[in-house]
Design a protein that fits this description.
Blueprint: H1 3-34, H2 41-58, H3 63-84, H4 94-116, E1 132-135, E2 138-141, H5 142-164, H6 166-176, H7 178-182, H8 188-210, H9 220-235, H10 240-260, H11 265-279
Antiparallel strand pairs: 1-2
């Protein structure tokens, strides 16, 4: 095993981590503020990928346009979901919330089949980001590095939002005590809508960014939801920083599995989750429920 192989697998793992972070960050934001696990979250990722494929195919391979249209469209779908369904079940028991979001997942999956059919799509990479570059004595796809860069920008942006803005303060306060927050004059219902829309937009962005790297087809919503949920659990539900750490742990664990035990690679991510939960049941940066 050469040093180049290790570097390539490391960067491949970071590419996976970048995608999972963008999806899991939205999932954990929604849970942190609202205490709702949204089973339909993977649908926004799938719609982002399908919309990116449509935009890129019809605009002459303009990725930048897809990166604008897909997140905003996914955010709009999230707004409709929140206003029509989620707002009515925030104070219901968790089983009701899970059933409602699972129903949304099924509805969105059926609509995707109606809109785009059951065939798969391969999205071309833009010319400026196609090809490879020399890394550690070997070649690595430029587009994968672009995905890592986008996730880094998203992570910095979320940190600035949560740590340096009044909206971020309110989101963090909602995660602690929504009743106390409402006494400060904050419109909690509107805040929940903003958080839900932000989470859906992040998932749509992830789908658009990763569309040239995956086969865009019905069913990609299920796989990404499972992995994003594992990331959120490892990092600690409600913690964006934890989602970043969990994504890196999962991405590198998966890459190590491919490198050293390919036939068992798919099991490595579950072993990583079990190992973390045995030590810290509430995740690496999560807090125990009071």
């Amino acid at each position: 095993m050469s040093g180049h192989d290790i570097i390539v697998q490391f960067l491949s793992g970071m590419t996976t981590a970048a995608t999972l972070f963008m999806v899991a960050a939205g999932l954990t934001l929604v849970f942190g503020a609202m205490r709702v696990i949204n089973f339909a979250h993977g649908s926004y990722y799938m719609y982002g990928a399908f919309l990116a494929a449509a935009v890129i195919g019809r605009s002459g391979n303009r990725l930048w346009l897809a990166l604008v249209v897909a997140p905003f469209a996914a955010a709009g779908l999230g707004a409709v979901s929140e206003l029509v369904v989620m707002r009515r079940i925030y104070r219901r028991e968790h089983l009701t919330q899970l059933l409602a979001t699972f129903a949304l997942f099924l509805i969105f999956a059926d609509l995707a089949l109606r809109f785009w059919g059951g065939s798969f799509r391969n999205v071309p990479r833009p010319g400026a980001l196609d090809g490879t570059m020399s890394v550690g004595g070997g070649d690595f796809p430029v587009y994968n590095l672009f995905v890592i860069a986008v996730a880094t920008v998203v992570g910095v942006g979320l940190w600035l939002l949560l740590a340096r803005t009044k909206l971020g303060w309110r989101i963090r306060a909602a995660a602690e005590d929504t009743e106390t927050l409402s006494t400060t004059g904050t419109n909690v219902a509107r805040l929940f809508t903003i958080v839900f829309v932000l989470g859906a937009g992040l998932a749509g962005l992830a789908g658009a960014v990763v569309s040239p790297l995956v086969t865009v087809a019905p069913g990609i919503d299920v796989g990404i939801l499972v992995e994003a949920f594992i990331v959120a659990v490892i990092g600690g539900l409600g913690s964006v920083a934890g989602a970043a750490i969990g994504a890196v742990v999962l991405g590198l664990t998966q890459a190590a599995g491919v490198l050293w035990a390919p036939t068992w690679a798919s099991a490595f991510i579950y072993l990583a989750m079990i190992a973390v939960l045995v030590v810290r049941p509430w995740g690496l940066l999560g807090t125990a429920e009071r």
